[in-house]
From TrEMBL:
The gene is aroA_2. Monomer. Phosphoenolpyruvate binds at residues 10, 109, 157, 327, 372, 397. Catalyzes the transfer of the enolpyruvyl moiety of phosphoenolpyruvate (PEP) to the 5-hydroxyl of shikimate-3-phosphate (S3P) to produce enolpyruvyl shikimate-3-phosphate and inorganic phosphate. It comes from Streptomyces plumbiresistens. This is 3-phosphoshikimate 1-carboxyvinyltransferase. Its EC number is 2.5.1.19. Residues 3-405 form the Enolpyruvate transferase domain.
Length: 413
């Protein structure tokens, strides 16, 4: 049995940094994730004039309800979509000219519905190249607030950004949402806003965010459930047992629901008050599963699917095509390279038995600079000798120590 300590949640750390920066007072974040995405977010705040004190186990942020402390800044958001979508939104609440850019990978990813909504709210936001993509400049003069309509069918992060902004507006925000993916991430946002003193009223697809700002607090970051998924999948695939402390029935992250998928496939799963255990049984059934709510775990499932006794069909995951890479095609191409039988459609992927099955042949995985492709196929590697990666280091986005931790698990399974 292996007990695995998983680093902090990327999503929770990013929100906590926003909330801490926006709050009135000094906030202490316990056990934040230290990775490229979250370090990039913190650096962005520093560029915007916030004081962020960082020790390995705790980050401290001096909040500024009035917005950035500088009137001009140039912020580089790296590969992080939370950074690239949340920080320009935070900057809009301030007074100054703030330019944002991102890596080539992040520049390709969309944010038009968010920038449109900000403009509808009166924010002067200018794209430098393509509409709805970085680089962009926010000429901020505070946000009055009011009503806005948002299509979050491509990314829930647009909605999270606006919800987080709401309490910093003068009149509050009413957001009417026409479509929404990754809905559990919005629940994380609402729960965390509550911890910082703000209660959002929700009536179906309409969210009412009161003005009045946030209260500083001390906030402990829970382990990352998407990261934990690789370790749970490893147990299910090998017949081993993995326990992750700190993720239990009270967890905020919807991605912990990935263990229900593993349970349906035949693994034994125990979700306790403050820990989750997955035990592989030697059985791995095929299944059809819609992953709209937990699509960061789609590659994890795809990577163990060739070992299932029946077809694995993953549906309703169109927006995985606009992540760090086109994840549906990246999974399909890499699986085929290993000898698996795979088909994809606009929003689905199906992996069927009858390919090379347990005799998958090792090959170099093309990472497409996507941490999840690497971490997922590392799980495949537990039963397929000879898997290597063209860019193993891209795991730094969410888990710089992944290869060491996963190697240590391999020895204990
Ligand atoms: O809000 C968040 O922290 C996230 C929301 C999800 O994105 P989408 O809403 O774009 O699917 C998820 O894939 C991403 O890793 C983190
Ligand atoms: C999609 C992801 O990241 P983000 O959208 O936050 O860049 C991810 O971590 O899988």
């Amino acid at each position: 049995m292996a007990v695995v300590q998983i680093p902090g949640s990327k999503s929770v750390t990013a929100r906590a940094l926003f909330l801490a920066a926006a709050a009135d007072g000094v906030t202490t974040l316990l056990r934040p994730l230290r990775s490229d995405d979250t370090e990039g977010f913190a650096e962005g705040l520093v560029r915007l004039g916030y004081r962020v004190g960082r020790t390995p186990d705790a980050w401290q942020v001096d909040g500024r309800p009035q917005g950035p402390a500088v009137t001009e800044a140039d912020v580089y958001c790296r590969d992080g979509a939370t950074t690239a979508r949340f920080l320009p939104t935070l900057a809009a609440a301030g007074h100054g000219t703030y330019r944002f850019d991102a890596s080539p990978q992040m520049r390709r990813r969309p944010l038009l519905p968010l920038t449109r909504a900000l403009r509808d709210l009166g924010v002067d936001l200018r794209h430098e190249e393509a509409e709805g993509h970085h680089p962009l400049t926010v000429v901020a003069a505070g946000v009055e607030g009011g009503e806005v309509t948002l299509d979050a069918g491509q990314s829930s992060q647009y909605l999270t950004a606006l919800l987080l902004l709401g309490p910093l507006t003068r009149a509050g925000l009413r957001i009417a949402v026409t479509d929404l993916v990754s809905a559990p991430y919005v629940e994380i946002t609402l729960a965390m806003m509550r911890e910082f003193g703000v209660e959002v009223r929700r009536d179906g697809n309409v969210f009412d965010v009161p003005p009045g700002g946030y209260r500083a607090t001390t906030y402990a970051i829970e382990p990352d459930a998407s990261t934990a998924g690789y370790f749970f999948a490893a147990a299910a695939l090998t017949g081993g047992e993995v326990t992750v402390p700190g993720l239990g029935t009270g967890a905020l992250q919807g991605d912990l629901g990935f263990v229900d998928v593993l349970r349906r496939m035949g693994a034994e799963v125990t979700v306790g008050a403050d820990a989750t255990t997955v035990r592989g049984t030697g059985r791995l059934n095929g299944l059809t599963v819609a992953m709209r709510d937990i699509s960061d775990t789609m590659p994890t499932l795809a990577a163990i699917a060739p070992f299932a006794s029946g077809p694995v069909r993953i549906e309703d995951v169109a927006n995985t095509r606009v992540k760090e890479c086109d994840r549906l095609e990246a999974c399909a191409q890499n699986l085929r390279r290993l000898g698996a039988t795979v088909e994809t459609g606009p929003d689905w992927i199906e992996i069927r038995p009858g390919g090379a099955a347990d005799g998958l042949v090792g090959a170099e995985i093309t990472s497409y600079g996507d941490h999840r492709i690497v971490m997922s196929f590392a799980v495949t590697g537990l039963r397929t000798p000879g898997i290597s990666f063209d860019d193993p280091g891209c795991v730094r986005k969410t888990f710089p120590g992944f290869h060491e931790e996963f190697g240590a698990l391999r020895a204990r399974l």
